[in-house]
Specification:
two-stranded antiparallel sheet; four-stranded mixed beta sheet; alpha+beta
């Protein structure tokens, strides 16, 4: 029997651009109101304070603008779904670059400058533009999908650390959820486990007997934010199952060894 080829998910480029811009604006609005006490709290992301986390989020926009200011690369080397697994080795380098670029400015000022630079750069460049990136050259359209992951994950970090309620754009949450679900399917190809993250994603993964009809024998189900925390190492599998934030049925439905898909 011929092997099945996994279909690459597509994203609406206009909606993704809008979601990235809107999510960054939500965070910027919240950061302007942070008190010195909130800024000094531990962010839950390594040894970063909330101020460090805020500066990193500003750098996400600033570095996108900087990438678009460089000469374009010839051809993309990496797709959006390959990005999560390619980022682990760059965490230290990215943190140092953000620190060097943005050190010293007030968070509100950082967001104002970075947001303006990003908006101007996006206005000038089509989705087909290929960015030369440390992680691997990518089209702007694909890279913007990965920005939904960065912004949604760090919005959640900020909300939990500073006691905020920064809204998460539905389109950004959907893209982030789907990309991380597809990254799991890429990491553990197969069809024996069905992972359901309503209302945004359903993927099959893990080698073994493929489900074809009726109720799958191995099913994992959770909500988008829980999935995002699992996929990025903010939450461990055993705790999520114990707290009933994840339901997992079937002998192959333990995904603990496959998570996180990025860290």
């Amino acid at each position: 029997m011929a092997s099945r080829t996994r279909r690459t998910r597509t994203y609406d480029a206009v909606k993704i651009r809008t979601a990235v811009t809107a999510q960054f604006a939500h965070i910027a609005d919240a950061v302007r109101e942070l008190t010195p006490e909130q800024l000094g709290r531990n962010s839950g992301v390594g040894d970063w304070t909330v101020a460090d986390l805020a500066a990193h989020i500003a750098w996400i926009a600033d570095s996108l603008a900087a990438g678009l200011a460089r000469p374009p690369a010839a051809l993309p080397e990496l797709t959006a779904v390959e990005w999560p697994s390619a980022t682990a080795s760059l965490a230290g380098k990215i943190a140092e670059a953000a620190k060097e670029t943005l050190q010293g400015a007030a968070p509100a000022e950082l967001f104002e400058q970075a947001g303006a630079r990003m908006a101007e750069a996006l206005e000038r460049n089509p989705g087909s533009r290929v960015l030369a990136l440390w992680v691997g050259d990518m089209t702007l359209a694909d890279f913007l999908v990965t920005r939904t992951v960065e912004l949604v994950v760090h919005t959640d970090d900020l909300n939990r650390a500073a006691g905020l309620a920064v809204p998460i754009e539905r389109q950004a949450l959907a893209a982030c959820t789907r990309l991380l679900a597809d990254a799991l399917a890429l990491k553990a190809p197969g069809g024996s486990v069905e992972v359901r993250i309503p209302p945004f994603a359903v993927v099959q993964c893990v080698e073994g007997p493929r489900h074809t009809r009726g109720t799958p024998s191995n099913v994992v189900e959770t909500d988008p934010l829980t999935w995002i925390r699992l996929a990025t190492g903010r939450l461990d599998w055993a705790s999520a199952v114990a707290d009933a934030r994840v339901t997992a049925s079937g002998e192959r439905a333990d995904l603990g060894s496959l998570l996180p898909v990025m860290s």
